[in-house]
Amino acid sequence: KTRELIEELDRLISVQFRETFAQLETAFDVRFQQLFGGGFAKLSLTDPSDLGATGIEIVARPPGKKAQALSMLSGGERALTAVALLFAMLEVRPAPFCVLDEVDAALDEANVGRFADALRSLASGTQFIVITHNRGTIESADALYGVTVGDDSVSRVISLRLEEARALAAERAGARGRLGA
Fold it and tell me: How far apart are CA 92 and CA 23, in angstroms?
């Protein structure tokens, strides 16, 4: 009975793995196209007959280029492809939160905009904490947290909710307008 149970579990795991992998393949291609503004990406198993030992190969074709293995892409293209795979995973199996540390460092302005759009599209199901120095990513955030050092050489944590800051700025601009009238 134990062997029968093991065989049944192996079949169930195999079915679930293949279903999830198929969903991931589709989501990965969609996220890749979103982040690159076109092209295509494909995932494939190195040994589909042995799911316990198989690896995964990634082939990608950014717009205007030929299809190639991940290792042949530029640093920025590899970073964006990895982000596309991570976002596809979060789409297929959402997590409550995700910490991204400088994943946008190698991205140009156009790619940062698409990266921010992709983050927003997943933000309803996952809270993102993005550690970055990239101005474009910072500008698309809902809240900012940072550390600053004052004249007294003491570090202070600062936080800013951008929606509240915009409301306060609009209120102050309205007050200045009424005073000038």
Answer: 7
